[in-house]
Amino acid sequence: MAEIRLFDAHNHLQNYPGETDPQKVLEKDCSAGVKLTLCNGTNPGDWKKVLDLAGRKGVFPFFGLHPWFISKAESGWLELLGDFLLRAPSGVGEIGLDRTVNTDLNEQEKIFRAQLQLAKRLKRPVSIHCVKAWDRLAGILKEEAPPAFMLHAYGGAPEMVKKLAELGAYFSFNAGLMDSKREKLRQALMTVPLNRLLFETESSDPDSEARRSGSQGSENPGVAFPAANSREGYPLVEVIRAAAAALAQSPEALGELTWRNAEIFMGELFPGYLKS
User: Fold this and answer.
1) Side by side, which strands form the sheet with 149-151?
2) Mean pLDDT of the 93-108 span
3) How many CB atoms lie under 10 A from the CB of residue 165?
4) Whole-angstrom distance, CA of residue 164 vs CA of residue 154
5) Taking residues 111-132, what's their average pLDDT?
6) By 3-state DSSP, what share of the chain in percent is helix, strand and coil, each rounded to 5?
7) Which residues on neighbouring strands pair with residue 170, listed in sequence order?
8) What's the pLDDT tens digit per position in 10-34?
């Protein structure tokens, strides 16, 4: 069987506990089949950490100002963001809109648009966070037309999928698919065009319950899709298993499909040594 290649569409590797060696985490991920992870910054205070991690094999950096951290941004943050984006092949993220935080939504929109415009000018892919602002988000995306964008940890209604897909969206899903109470999320998954589908860990804690609930257990790691019910956890494997069950696909086929989607999403920025 061909080597399994999995793509983690959204992670915050820079936020792992200080005593955790990111290299060991990456090696464990690689043994589970994960060959590329998108590490997302959230504010100017963590962009340098993300840039440092980008020197490691299998890590691709995204830099952005998240709506939760707008108050941390000082004057000149946008120019600084542009500088980081030019220091390495990279994307823009995590950015977006969130109605559940105290920051005024108009201010969020202003900052979101500025980053979308920067991404468009530099031809960079975008990773987007959205909570309870889907119609407003769709309107902004239609006007700004970023070159490539994913909706990370998609949580919108199934009915929004078609509208967003027509704007060019990729949709990334995480371990929420394994929650038996989230039937609407699985319905949304089944509405997404297969060529726009991605999966993610959205993890910054290597010892999280989600990570422990996954699987790595193959005697020949990375050759066959990791076996279920192993004590060694890796959440991306289980996210893909849950999605495969809902979509009546094999996990192997779905993993390979999303790898090809990742190549298209990232375009010329996809690492050459990993291209099919």
Assistant:
1) 6-11, 34-40, 59-63, 91-98, 126-131, 149-151, 169-173, 197-199
2) 96
3) 17
4) 11
5) 98
6) 50, 15, 35
7) 150
8) 999 998 766 567 888 888 888 889 9
Are 80 and 44 contacting, i.e. CB atoms less than 8 angstroms apart?
yes
The β-bridge relationship of strands 91-98 and 169-173 is: unpaired
CA–CA dist 7, 60 (Å, integer): 11
Q: Which residues in 38-76 are b (16+ Cβ under 10 Å) and which e?
A: bbbbbbbebbebbbebbeeebbbbbbbbbbbbbeebeee
The token duo for 7 is: 């793509």
Mean pLDDT, rounded, of the chain: 88
pLDDT score of 32: 87
Q: Tell me the residue type at 2.
A: A
pLDDT score at 22: 80
Q: Output 82 or 226, whichever has higher pLDDT.
A: 82
Domain boundaries, the chain: 29-274
Neighbours of 106 (CB within 10 A): 7
CATH for 29-274, options being 3.20.20.140, 3.40.50.720, 3.30.457.10, 3.80.10.10: 3.20.20.140
* Tokens linked to 119: 């991404």
Q: Torsion angle of alpha carbons 11, 15, 21, 25, nearest 10°?
A: -20
Q: Which of 33, 35, 37 is nearest to 216 (CA)?
A: 33
Which residue from 133, 258, 128 is spatially nearest to 189, judged by alpha carbons?
258
* pTM for this entry: 0.89
Map residue 87 onto helix, strand or coil.
helix
